[in-house]
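Researcher: I'm preparing a figure for a lab meeting and need a structural model of a single chain. I don't have an experimental structure, so a prediction will have to do for now. The sequence is pasted below. Please return the structure as tokens so I can convert it later.
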Amino acid sequence: MNLIILNDEKKMYEFLKGYLIQHQYQEALKSLYYAIEKHEGTYRKNGLPYIVHPFYVACFGIYLGLNSEKQIAVNLLHDVPEDCEDDLTNLDVALEIKKSAHILNFNPHKKKYPNDKHQATIDFYNLIPTDKEATMCKLLDRYHNLSTYGNDFPFERVLNYSKETNEFIFPLCDNSLELYPYYRFAILYLVNGMQTFIRDADAKAIGEKEKARKRLVA
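Model: Understood. Here is the structure written out token by token.
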């Protein structure tokens, strides 16, 4: 797969559809169409259609060898339960795919700890390692978000996102290296990329903070 397609919604869709048909991944193909339907009309902060994000996660996962049918299906569906408030009841795929996608839904943890977001986040990240596909999807998801975060959000939010990544995502990476050593190349690739994105985003955020301070002093 040519990585240049990761900047093109249509090319990612064509690649995924062809790949899933070629490998006879019928459940992942259903997940592809379902994700498109559920994310229709929604957009990311940068103005791109939201579906670009799950497309990217699925395509980049395939590039890194995370290409089982269940993994691709979960990658495509991972934001549907949380962002679309859809429990996947109407999607005709294996229950195990739905379970993995539901693990990536932060909403139940927010409801459990309505006044303590940090505890809700701890609860969330304690659950993710119990599922291989959810774990690898979360790492791919964070990689893509970090790659665009610095350009799409105010610096305060960038710093908070970086803090969460250091506190929860990198320990998840370390844990994953022990649990899934056969994914070592993919995990290390994602770790190195995320570390670079954080350094760049933090530097930009700190620069913006300094500019704001100087404006107040002037």
